Amino acid sequence: MMNAFDYICQNQGITSEESYPYQQMQETCDTQINKVATISGYQMVPKNGEEALLKAVKNQPVSIALEGHGQDFQFYNGGVFKGDLEILSPMQSPLLDMGQVKKV
């Protein structure tokens, strides 16, 4: 996920599938295309950092990765998830930051 955020920052945004559809070929991608989404950076929130997560959710879009190997998650089919869930990250979870570039 952090590689994707870095890519978006380094390329000043990304386009949509509609604007730039996939074509199988061995060439360099066109980077001078219509950008439909940009970010200026992202920041990390500590694992199990509930207060930091609440603050982040209040201020910008949030992106998290979930560990989905448990049976509770594998057989989930709708509604509010009430099973065991672990945020997937050995240290921290990445959060999208729509403000200035911050890497912790």
From TrEMBL:
Q: Which GO terms describe its molecular function?
A: cysteine-type peptidase activity
Q: Per the database record, which ranges form the Peptidase C1A papain C-terminal domain?
A: 1-84
- Which InterPro entries does the entry link to? Papain-like_cys_pep_sf, Peptidase_C1A, Peptidase_C1A_C
Q: Which UniProt keywords apply?
A: Hydrolase, Protease, Thiol protease
> Example GO biological process term?
proteolysis
Please name one Pfam family that this protein belongs to. Peptidase_C1
The cross-references to SUPFAM superfamilies, in alphabetical order and at most eight, read: Cysteine proteinases
User: Domain of life, per the record?
Assistant: Eukaryota
Family label = Belongs to the peptidase C1 family.
Q: What is this protein called?
A: Peptidase C1A papain C-terminal domain-containing protein
